[in-house]
Amino acid sequence: MMPRVPSILFITDPYIEHLFEGVVDFAREQRWALNAMMRRSGRFPEGVRPDGIIATIEHEDTARRLARFRCPVVQILRIRDEVRYPLVIPDYAALGATGARHLLTLGRPHFAFYRRFKAADSNAVQDGFLRTMRDADCEVTRLDFPHETSQKDITEKEWELRLAKKLHTLPKPCAIMAEDDRCGAQIIRLALDAGLRVPEDVAVIGCDNHQPDVNLSSVPLTSVDSNLRGMGYAAAELLERLMCGSPATAAPIVIAPHGIIERTSTAAFVCSDKRIAATVRRIRRDFAEPLAVSTLGREAAMSVRALQTGFKAATGHSLRDELIRCRLTCAERLLEDTDLKIQAVAIECGLGDAKSLTRFFHQKHQRTPNAYRQVFRSKSL
Predict the structure, then answer these.
(1) DSSP letter at 56?
(2) Which of 211, 225, 245, 304 is the least buried, fewest Cβ under 10 Å from its Cβ?
């Protein structure tokens, strides 16, 4: 007799493609019969008897309909403050801390955090950002919609006018983290409308790396990758355990971020010497090219020794360290997101050959590039 195929419902109020891809990854492995028609029709499926449900729940009507089912349910994301089911969420505080650490690599601009929504998750992202900046002894301006409108309701247009004024009065250059990519795109739009340059006057980083929201930005938006696909996979994995009789735990499953997806909106560096700042930007932009220190010195109109001394004073590390850091960051992303062979990864990131990549990789991670790829994927899925 053939084993029975579990019937699984994917219920989605806000549909996020990468979440669904993670669920599909697990469903394929387990040979689930996955009913995901709601993502196409927007209508709640009727007349089905699933063995389990994975859901993103925003509307009360969806929550009420789900309560009728007598099967395990796993919820992804905490969009509503009320949580009724085992939950899988990002590590929100880590998202804020990751964004802060990236902005700290931009030198010493004025830092700010933009919070648009009043929710526990928004608070956690902001808290992670503020804590990291405080540990680095950096002051932060809070552009805080919920805090500033607690005594008086204002329209979205009125808030944007107020926010635009705040952007104008912030010390320049500044670097702003927004609580999500929608807010990041909004900051960029308002900054450009005010005649400010992005990233030279205002550098911006968003959160989630949710592609539709990232694409709203007229300047390519740097974002913290919250590992949405990994969340979908973890939710499906949890549902499988629940269907097999394992008890649910009260604490949510928390998924660590992947890191930073760097784009133009943070391609800036602030220091007192414009020649050093230009050299930092040149390395971060063209790290895959064969960059000699003598070439960089000639471009900066500085002696090699003066350039090396000024660079270390501004960044805290050497030109060579910066170049290797950029190349390894690129290699890590290629190992995580592609199936390129190690030799191809080495060429793409500017390290030349597999032997060099393996040597530098082992120095940083104490493992080979192939081992890094295997460990990363086992943790992400």
Answers:
(1) E
(2) 245
